[in-house]
Amino acid sequence: MAMRCLFAVVLMALVSCGTTQLKPIAPTDRGMVLVMPEKGKRQVKVDTIYFGRINEGEIIKAHFTVVNHRVEPLVITDIITGCGCTTVDYDPAPIATHEERTFEVRFDSKGRYGTQYKTIEVLSEDHAVGYIAFKAEVKAQ
């Protein structure tokens, strides 16, 4: 658990230092693409979905796509969000080799103000971890 907390702190430092790539996501887009790392590995580079400026109370939706470039099917066992304001719907069915699956992420800005950085951890049954992050500027109405 301490290792996860340490990694989250390092990840947030990377995001806040601008070492990630900000990409606006169009509603019709399949979103950010996440290629899961090999067995037991953690993703090194974290891209960031940029939601832009939104009003407090808005619920923003975006998508990210997980791609399986492995030789065996990819089984996602869990998707962990940084807090209850962020949710992800996902299908736990295995993703076949060279296939992809799109997931919807929702951010509820109710009660949030200012710059918001949130991370999403995608965990596989073979202990690989992929990450997606997003940033939003929440303004009071």
Please describe what this structure looks like.
With 141 residues, this protein is mostly beta strands. Helix content is 11%, strand content 46%. The protein contains 1 helix and 9 strands, in the order αβββββββββ. The chain has one helix at 2-16; strands spanning 22-24, 32-35, 48-55, 59-67, 76-81, 86-89, 100-108, 114-124, 129-139. The chain has a 5-stranded mixed beta sheet, with helices on one face. Strands 2-4-7-6 form a 4-stranded mixed beta sheet, with no helix packed on it. It is elongated.
Outline the fold blueprint:
Blueprint lengths: L1 H15 L5 E3 L7 E4 L12 E8 L3 E9 L8 E6 L4 E4 L10 E9 L5 E11 L4 E11 L2
Parallel strand pairs: 1-3, 2-4, 3-9
Antiparallel strand pairs: 4-7, 5-8, 6-7, 8-9
Keywords for this entry:
141 residues; four-stranded mixed β-sheet; mainly beta; five-stranded mixed β-sheet
